[in-house]
């Protein structure tokens, strides 16, 4: 795990010394991603500069340092991530006569690309990676991102250069960076709470989409579009062409073996390793398999909160005790959690508004005090149908599929009658096992779904934070993305499969994996996600949906595998998620901070947001009639990001 950056000076205005100083300045911005070392590589004749910050995980010696040049001298690489099957690839390369200087995965993937070509080699990589590869002979730069989008990579033209890096802050350090806001991308951000690939907050800069390669040569006047080497759509189609024919019991056996292998290969490290453990199904199964495959008690990490409605530490501790892990927990006071908020703009580098970013950072900080690598349960929901919306969709389709549109609208109006707060009070009277978090908001969202004209509008009503049709970014119109462009949907009438697919290509990389990457990298911690082993993903899409979702619950195969290691009584409970009581904080200790950022005069003067709908939502939230935390947090995180960016602009000038 590391940070990479670099550029091609297309106008050849700088000598080698100037190139070196500039790329070093860009590399320094990524110090948090790689606290163990920094190196650069310069090709003055071509105007190419590569920079790397190192978090030493595999081969801690100088033989693992980057930028790294291939044995034949042709290729130079900077690489972020880990390719877990590097030992197998190394054995094959050695049999072909290759000799290695060290034992890092970086050297193996570099020599694999030199021997087999980029696309052939990448197709064989099992892992997470963002790669920049300079071919000195062909004068060609290749940028490559892993299949599911676990590791980030940004790029674009800045002045007279082509620049790239693991985070936008590295590109901002280039002297000619202007940073014009992309209002269309911000319109998407306002709806989703994150900026989906390929867009960024800045006009003209892009995120490399998952599963793609971008090739650029300095002689080209335009930056070409990335080309895919892997797509989830093709995986889904292949899964349908060769569906799983075995029994559910056989599938559970097979999944156990697949996940054991996915975990086993992610245990390779020359530094201490642990597991994030919330006590839920996904993380508990990862912890159980690490305990089985690691050869010694796993190090597990949990944070807890005093508010029982948001605390999973007790459940996690019970799972850890049963498994026999070395468990570490930290109970966080509300003031400690809120103290993270001023850091978020710097941690996330781009406007990002998933409030679970707060506990994710806290558990990452706890884990980093003892380990350098951690395994995470992220991806289990998207791959195995774990979100409540999948279950709800099946129930809704079964019960109202035959209703007339007028009937659906009538029920929707009835659900919107009581305020979310009133629904919350009613649900609080139910037994604990039947309660839901934020039931009022969920019922109001259900009303939006029922009132939708078609399946597309229904899904958009589920995932968008602001109500459909609400435009709060002045001069911005959200571009078509996989959620709104039906041409990019699966060819299926099954809305649950459609939702799982769309979540996996949008919400997963743009929200969940972004959250985990930035939170862990902020403290110099590598996070690995075994559920997103592409082999597991491909196998899961062969399963019939009824294997994944049954009896009103998702993730059925994971539940049955986990039951082999942990008694169901320790993990069978309502899904909680990983959250903080943000709605209460905005009405209480964060009220003045939020009011300042949302002040009508400030919004009008800054000219990005329309103040009227935001103020209406703010009044609604403060009154207690509605929980508008998601809409408001989107605006607040942009405002905080913009303030932090303005503060950085007044800092000492960048290297010219």
Question: What attributes does this structure have?
Answer:
single chain; 656 residues; alpha+beta; Glutamine Phosphoribosylpyrophosphate, subunit 1, domain 1; Rossmann fold; 3 domains; six-stranded antiparallel beta sheet; 28 helices; 14% strand
Structure explained in plain terms:
The protein has 656 residues and is of the alpha+beta class. The protein folds into 3 domains: 2-229, Glutamine Phosphoribosylpyrophosphate, subunit 1, domain 1 (4-Layer Sandwich); 233-384 and 503-570, Rossmann fold (3-Layer(aba) Sandwich), CATH 3.40.50.620; 581-656, no CATH class. The chain is built from 28 helices and 17 strands. The strands form 3 sheets. It has a 6-stranded antiparallel sheet. The radius of gyration is 25 Å and the shape is globular. The relative contact order is 0.12. The model is unreliable at 652-656 (pLDDT under 50).
The end-to-end distance, rounded to whole angstroms, is 29 Å
Strand order, sheet with most strands: 2-3-1-9-8-10
Structural class: alpha+beta
> Can you give the mean pLDDT?
92
Percentage of residues in DSSP E strands: 5-15%
- Give start-end ranges of low-pLDDT stretches: 652-656
- Could you name the CATH class of the largest domain? Alpha Beta
Number of helices: 28
Which word captures the global form? globular
CATH architecture of the largest domain: 4-Layer Sandwich
């Amino acid at each position: 795990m590391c940070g990479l950056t670099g550029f091609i000076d297309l106008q050849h205005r700088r000598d080698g010394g100037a190139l070196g100083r500039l790329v070093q300045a860009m590399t320094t911005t990524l110090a948090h991603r790689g606290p163990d070392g920094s190196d650069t590589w310069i090709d003055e004749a071509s105007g190419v500069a590569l920079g790397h910050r190192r978090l030493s995980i595999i081969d801690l010696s100088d033989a693992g340092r980057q930028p790294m040049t291939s044995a034949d001298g042709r290729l130079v690489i900077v690489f972020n991530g880990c390719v877990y099957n590097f030992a197998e690839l190394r054995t094959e390369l050695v049999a072909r006569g290759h000799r290695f200087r060290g034992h890092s995965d970086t050297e193996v993937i570099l020599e694999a690309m030199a021997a087999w070509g980029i696309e052939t080699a990448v197709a064989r990589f099992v892992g997470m990676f963002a790669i920049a590869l300079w071919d000195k002979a062909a004068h060609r730069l290749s940028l490559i991102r892993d299949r599911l989008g676990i590791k980030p990579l940004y790029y674009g033209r800045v002045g007279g250069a082509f620049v790239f890096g693991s985070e936008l802050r590295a590109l901002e350090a280039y002297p000619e960076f202007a940073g014009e806001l992309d209002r269309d991308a911000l319109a998407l951000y306002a709806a989703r709470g994150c900026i989906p690939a390929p867009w960024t907050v800045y006009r003209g800069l892009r995120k490399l989409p998952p599963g793609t390669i971008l090739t650029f040569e300095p002689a080209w006047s335009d930056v070409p579009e990335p080309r895919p080497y892997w797509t989830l759509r093709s995986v889904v189609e292949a899964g349908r062409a060769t569906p799983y024919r075995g029994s559910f019991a056989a599938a559970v056996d097979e999944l156990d073996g697949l996940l054991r292998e996915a975990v086993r290969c992610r245990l390779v490290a020359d530094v201490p390793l642990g597991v994030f453990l919330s006590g839920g199904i996904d993380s508990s199964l990862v912890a159980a398999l690490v305990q089985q495959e690691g050869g010694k008690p796993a190090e597990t990490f949990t944070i807890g909160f005093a508010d029982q409605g948001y605390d999973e530490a007790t459940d996690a501790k019970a799972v850890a005790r049963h498994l026999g892990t070395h468990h570490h927990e930290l109970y966080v006071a509300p003031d400690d959690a809120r103290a993270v908020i001023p850091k978020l703009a710097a941690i996330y580098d781009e406007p990002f508004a998933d409030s679970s970013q707060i506990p994710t950072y806290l558990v990452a900080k706890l884990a980093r005090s003892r380990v350098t690598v951690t395994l995470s349960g992220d991806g289990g929901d998207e791959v195995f149908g774990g979100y409540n919306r999948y279950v709800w969709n099946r129930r809704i389709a079964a019960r109202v599929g035959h209703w007339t549109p007028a009937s659906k609208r009538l029920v929707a109006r009835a659900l919107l009658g009581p305020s979310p707060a009133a629904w919350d009070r009613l649900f609080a009277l139910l037994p604990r096992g039947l309660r839901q978090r934020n039931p009022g908001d969920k019922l109001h969202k259900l009303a939006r779904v029922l009132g939708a004209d078609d399946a597309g509008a229904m899904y958009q009503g589920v995932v968008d934070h602001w109500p459909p049709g609400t435009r709060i970014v002045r001069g911005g119109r959200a571009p078509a993305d996989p959620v709104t462009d039906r041409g990019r949907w699966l060819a299926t009438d099954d809305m649950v499969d459609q939702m799982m697919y769309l979540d996996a290509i949008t919400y997963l990389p743009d929200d969940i994996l972004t959250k985990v990457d930035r939170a862990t990298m902020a403290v110099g911690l590598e996070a690995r996600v075994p559920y997103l082993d592409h082999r597991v993903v491909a196998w899961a899409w062969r399963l019939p949906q009824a294997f994944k979702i049954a009896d009103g619950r998702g993730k059925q195969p994971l539940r049955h595998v986990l039951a082999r290691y942990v008694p169901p009584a320790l993990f069978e409970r309502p899904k909680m998620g990983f959250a903080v009581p943000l709605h209460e904080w905005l009405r209480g200790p964060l009220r003045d901070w939020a009011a300042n950022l949302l002040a009508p005069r400030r919004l009008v003067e800054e000219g990005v947001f329309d103040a009227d709908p935001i103020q209406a939502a703010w009044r609604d939230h403060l009154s207690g009639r509605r929980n508008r935390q998601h809409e408001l947090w989107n605006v607040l995180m942009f405002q905080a990001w913009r303030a932090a960016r303005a503060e950085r602009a007044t800092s000492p000038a960048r290297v010219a």
